[in-house]
TrEMBL record:
Pfam families in the cross-refs: SBP_bac_3
Annotated PANTHER family: ABC TRANSPORTER SUBSTRATE-BINDING PROTEIN, MEMBRANE-BOUND LYTIC MUREIN TRANSGLYCOSYLASE F
Cleaved signal peptide residues: 1-35
Family statement drawn from the similarity comment of this UniProt entry: Belongs to the bacterial solute-binding protein 3 family.
UniProtKB keywords: Signal
Annotated organism of origin: Pseudomonas denitrificans
Xref: SUPFAM superfamilies: Periplasmic binding protein-like II (SSF53850)
Start and end residues of each Solute-binding protein family 3/N-terminal domain: 39-268
Protein name: Amino acid ABC transporter substrate-binding protein
Domain of life: Bacteria
Length: 268
């Protein structure tokens, strides 16, 4: 039974509840949403990714993709992985973003791709200086039938001419594979192999750093000039995020940010 003296309190109850709901809503609004954290792959692959003298991680791919992620409101956690392992981690969903990837059917089974936003980067053949076969090498298809010993990184795609070359079982059996390009450079220098395929910027930078620029030289043999893409794990990303990522990356490239970053590392 409601006493007459309590009747005036009844209209206040809905207002009190409303006030509490408003306060609760304000409190919830002040709580940050779940943080967006993305793992971004890097390795010793200058000028695209590398550890800098001050201990930080930099390079073209690192700076460019870290900027894109930050503009999308994501924190970035750098993960150092060799290429073959990075592909596996992407497939398992333990790596979110893998720059510098070429689109291949087997990779599309587990990865989204950004599309070709960055300008093409040439892969060329580097050989030991003074190699007798150098004068007869005009293109990669000249290698079968010769005694040329080629080195290649495990699970790295060098383009269609390389795929055609590896379709020759006799030549493929003589290719030396190693996960580290640094190891391959030293194999060339020691005469264990005759040459390797590498990005023209990466190759020249690494040879300078290793003190091998006078003993290993670039050739005029262009193996590929494809545009690498950014790959995303389908286990952790959706197509909308990839679309927004590609749009943000294009904005940076259109503004010349990639050229500015590359020039900074190559000129140094």
């Amino acid at each position: 039974m409601i006493l007459p003296s309590q009747a005036h309190r009844l209209p206040l109850l809905p207002r009190a509840r409303l006030k509490r709901l408003v306060l609760l809503g304000l409190a919830l609004a002040s709580v940050p949403l779940a943080a967006c954290e993305k793992t971004l792959r890097w390795d010793d692959d200058p000028p695209f990714s590398m550890q800098l003298p001050d201990g930080s991680v930099g390079g073209l791919y690192v700076e460019l993709n870290r900027t894109v992620l930050e503009r999308l409101g994501c924190e970035v956690r750098m993960v150092k992985l060799p290429w073959a392992r990075a592909l596996k981690e992407l497939e398992l969903g333990r790596l979110d973003v893998l720059p510098g990837a070429f689109r291949k059917p087997e990779r599309e089974a587990y990865a989204w791709f950004s599309g070709t936003v960055l300008p093409p980067s040439r892969n060329i053949l580097f050989v030991r200086r003074g190699l007798p076969q150098l004068g007869s090498l005009q293109q990669l298809s000249d290698l079968p039938g010769s005694d040329f010993r080629l080195g290649a990184q495990i699970d790295v795609s060098y383009g269609e001419p390389y795929r055609q070359l590896m379709a020759d079982p006799d030549f493929a059996a003589r290719v030396f594979f190693n996960p580290s390009r640094s190891n391959l450079w030293h194999m060339v220098d020691k005469g264990r192999i005759d040459g390797i395929i590498a990005d023209e910027h990466s190759g020249q930078y690494e040879l300078q750093q290793l003190g091998l620029a006078k003993r290993i030289e670039p050739t005029s043999v262009v193996v590929s000039a494809e545009s690498a893409e950014v790959a995303f794990s389908k286990r952790t990303q959706d197509e909308d995020f990839v679309r927004r990522y590609a749009q943000t990356l294009k904005t940076l490239v259109d503004a010349g940010e990639d050229r500015r970053i590359l020039q900074h590392y190559v000129s140094n």
